[in-house]
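EI: anyone free to look at a 203-residue chain?
SC: sure, send it
EI:
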Amino acid sequence: SNQASVTLTLSADTALTAIFEKDPAPPPPPPPPPATPAGLRNVALGATATQSSTAGAAAASLAVDGDRSGAPAASSLALTNSEANPWWQVDLGRAVDIHSAQLYNRTDCCGERMSNVVVLISEQDMTGRSYSSLLADPAITRVQHAPPMGGRLIVPLQVKGRYLRVQLAETNALSLAEGQVLALPTDPLVPDQSLLRNLALGR
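SC: here you go
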């Protein structure tokens, strides 16, 4: 029973019963977050990247060059024209076990453009498909982040895929300083030069 009772005798023929409820048991602690697998690396570094359109010289490949500076002056920013559902996509070369994605925003201005960000992961190339068809495809993993992403957005995934796409669920220009895909590589471990570079620069 969840109750305990105590009888207090006031006289020979009078009794007073007091009922005390037990304190409810505290809720169990939340489970610890899953451990980060050893050996993760950025498998998007130097991979083939494409995008829905290109503003000026801001090519899709500039978001997989290892430079997260986020300013056009540094010539390391992928940028599309303003359009409906602009996208940026990277081909990892083969299907890998993706742990998470880290997206780095433009830093000189216009960071609020990266709102309603949708991350799509597929084992098949998504080029040429409409945004609505991708959303309706059960074989594609989808994660949406509605608020402005700020300087960096970390997207936990835990999914297998070859293609990762970043797309806006609105009309705007998509700008991406760097798109990193952390995964367990299927080939021998090669040092991630972007991480070494950023460590050397103190970033």
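EI: The CA atoms of residues 39 and 90 lie 21 Å apart.
SC: 👍
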